[in-house]
């Protein structure tokens, strides 16, 4: 892969002060790896909404790229939502859309996710589109499910997908003691790339999430990086995965 992405989301686990302390420790890990300046490995950090302005200030001048955990589908009278245009104004580069928790607990369906993807792209943000099957199946069946989710998210306009990163997160692996096996993930991603190839998207960045942790990335084939959760709440683990990514790049 030309670029390896290593992302981490704090979800809603940290308070404001805790988030900033964690970010400062993450910056230490990044600064200790000057090879990141080459841009072949992209470290992506996604804190809670209230943290974004200060996070943008803290990471200025570092290789870290700022992301948001969600966005609304447009500006306007949507109480409690955050517009993608405001996120762009705050210095956000990526926005997570379609996470399994949003789909399950907040009733976000394919139509809503497609609206958010379109609004994000129009605002200059790169969607980090989360997709994945709910139950363990065979790799081919999982890839078919993911392909349908991806097609729905871009409303069938594959040109929209060219600017996004796909986070393949099998729902059954999120929060599990162990991630999906490296062989399973590699086969799902390989089958997905084969399905995307006729649309000119065989090299679309596809990263794996779902209890991802250090040691997994070197075992994967054809996968563009990892989307980390609780394991990277320890900044040292984030640094370990960055080292694995740098070795691959």
UniProtKB/TrEMBL annotation:
PROSITE patterns listed in its UniProt record: TIM_2 (PS51440)
Localization (cell): Cytoplasm
Organism: Paenarthrobacter nicotinovorans (Arthrobacter nicotinovorans)
Catalytic reaction list: D-glyceraldehyde 3-phosphate = dihydroxyacetone phosphate
EC class name: isomerase
SUPFAM superfamilies tied to this protein: Triosephosphate isomerase (TIM) (SSF51351)
Protein name according to UniProt: Triosephosphate isomerase
Keyword Cytoplasm assigned: yes
Keywords: Cytoplasm, Gluconeogenesis, Glycolysis, Isomerase
E.C. designation(s): 5.3.1.1
Pathway info: Carbohydrate degradation; glycolysis; D-glyceraldehyde 3-phosphate from glycerone phosphate: step 1/1; Carbohydrate biosynthesis; gluconeogenesis
CDD domains recorded: TIM (cd00311)
PANTHER family (alphabetical): TRIOSEPHOSPHATE ISOMERASE
Family to which the UniProt record says this protein belongs: Belongs to the triosephosphate isomerase family.
